[in-house]
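Input C-alpha cells:
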C-alpha cells in the first residue's frame, strides 16, 4: 500500500489547479499546507474504509493510467504540515490555516469543491473537481464519477 503524491495521476485540469495553488498560494506565502495524497490504489482505499477514515465505497482519488483512455483522479488531499502532519481541527492555528487555505483555493480555482459534495461536514483536507465540470469533460477525459 503506497501513498501517492504524483501530480500526473490527476485529471489534467486538476493538475493545472494544483500547480496554480502551489505557485500563487503555498510558495509565495509559505503556507504550511502540503499535498498529502493525489491518487489512491484500491488496497489503500480498503484500509481507509476499515479504519473508518472514509465511508465512500468509491473514491475520487482512484486512477488507472494503464486504462485506454487513462482514468484520472479527480480529488486531492492537502494536510497542514509544520514539523509533522496534522489533522487536528481543535488546534486553533491548524484550524485557521485550513480555513484560510480553503477559501484562497476556492477563490483561485472556483471549479473545485472543498470537502466534496456528499459530506455532512467539510473535510478540510479534500478538494475535488466539481461534478458539472467533470460531466462537461467526461467524453474527453474519463474519470470516476459518483
Amino acid at each position: 500500500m503506497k501513498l501517492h503524491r504524483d501530480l500526473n495521476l490527476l485529471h489534467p485540469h486538476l493538475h493545472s489547479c494544483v500547480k496554480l495553488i502551489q505557485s500563487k498560494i503555498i510558495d509565495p506565502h509559505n503556507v504550511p499546507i502540503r499535498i498529502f495524497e493525489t491518487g489512491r490504489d484500491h488496497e489503500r482505499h480498503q484500509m481507509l474504509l476499515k479504519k473508518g477514515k472514509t465511508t465512500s465505497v468509491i473514491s475520487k482519488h482512484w486512477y488507472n493510467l494503464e486504462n485506454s483512455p487513462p482514468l484520472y483522479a479527480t480529488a486531492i488531499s492537502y494536510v497542514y504540515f509544520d514539523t509533522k502532519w496534522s489533522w487536528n481541527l481543535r488546534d486553533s492555528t491548524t484550524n485557521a490555516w485550513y480555513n484560510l487555505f480553503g477559501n484562497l483555493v476556492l477563490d483561485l480555482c472556483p471549479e473545485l469543491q472543498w470537502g466534496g459534495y456528499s459530506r455532512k461536514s467539510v473535510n478540510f483536507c479534500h478538494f475535488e473537481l466539481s461534478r458539472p465540470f467533470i460531466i462537461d469533460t467526461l467524453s474527453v477525459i474519463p474519470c470516476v464519477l459518483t
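The chain has four helices and five strands. The mean pLDDT is 86.
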